[in-house]
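dumping the sequnces here before i forget
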Amino acid sequence: MSVHERSRLIRWRMGWLPGKPQACRNCNQINTLTTQQHAIICFQINENIDMNIHSFLNMIPKHPPRSAAQKFYWTTRWTVLQQFLFNLEAICLPPDEPINPASYTDQSPFVAWINGSSRLTTPLVLT
Ligand SMILES: [Zn+2]
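..and the predicted 3d for all of it:
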């Protein structure tokens, strides 16, 4: 996975992303703050990856899957999860500090690894 992907995943796991709760700029509803609980609901991430994020992360395979169905499963859900974390980080940064769009890629090294087009031996190597 990329440095940015890894950073966002670790910060999510540690509870540092979204960071200090502030008004949610995704839904812009009154009195909604950017807590993890709200972000999960606001972005409908559990529905979009069909499970709880922590459960999903605990299921990351140790070896690239062999079946096309499993490759598709991991590719689609990984992409959705990374888009969610990118968008969440974007709304949590100060308005005068826009997120670097280059910190998101649709050419994830993890997806390449899942699909067997990477020489990496583990999905957790930084690239
Ligand atoms: Zn919201």
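The first helix runs from residue 3 to 14.
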